[in-house]
């Protein structure tokens, strides 16, 4: 399916030369079968797969979940109107209803199981790795994004993990269709000049959500992040990148007491304590008068 997607993108954008892929931790993606096959897929499509990043476990709703949420809501609307979604074709029809979802492309394909050549592999510990970079001469992996130099696997070692996967001969039953870009607008009747005049014609005004976004302040929903934005688009970009600014918004009285007590404890030096101990020992050893 990735090969079919890259081939479609190459058709839409002929100057496309490399891509960065991202997905959740579903077993069909987060496995060595797919990761070892990506270089060959890139060679067959003419689009190099530079990186493949997975969502970190227990990291909350990331960019993949936010994109999927809009798609699920669109399909739920289709179902609530009395339509059934029982097959892949029904799901494609639900996605493409009402002009489709912006930025979402759907196709119905059939997998040819007989074309699978990589039936086993010896690459272990893939589930503990979340970032994969395909470099010249091999692949570099990380447990967490951009933490440490990572571990490098040479091309020779990657070839020893399993037999390469050849063409999958995927059968396209229903090809990709491009979604329509919808501009949110609503209609409102113009105010009549007088009580006896006829109603004015319909006038098209911008969507309230677009005008309100310029005046409202959108706050980051990540716990501890204090960043705010003037538009929803800026907030969406911030959530996708994930560069949060964690800062204590307000310090309680109890926190202030603990901080001052810590400073007081650090101000007491070892010499002061030894001096007090020596003085007390000399007082104990002095003869009583």
Word description of this protein:
- The protein is of the alpha+beta class.
- It has two domains: 2-174, no CATH class; 205-263, no CATH class.
- It is built from nine helices and eleven strands.
- The strands form four sheets. Strands 1-2-4-5-6 form a five-stranded mixed beta sheet. Strands 3-7 form a two-stranded antiparallel ribbon.
- The model is unreliable at 182-189 and 192-214 (pLDDT under 50).
Overall geometry comes to globular
Q: Low-confidence segments, ≥5 residues, pLDDT <50?
A: 182-189, 192-214
Widest sheet, order of strands? 1-2-4-5-6
Strand tally? 11
Largest sheet: 5 strands, mixed
Count of discrete domains:
2
Number of helical elements: 9
Give the arrangement of secondary structure elements.
Layout: H1 2-12, E1 18-23, H2 32-45, E2 48-54, H3 63-80, H4 88-95, E3 108-110, E4 131-135, E5 138-142, E6 151-154, H5 155-161, E7 171-174, E8 185-189, E9 202-206, H6 208-215, E10 218-219, E11 228-229, H7 232-241, H8 253-267, H9 270-285
Parallel strand pairs: 1-2
Antiparallel strand pairs: 2-4, 3-7, 4-5, 5-6, 8-9, 10-11
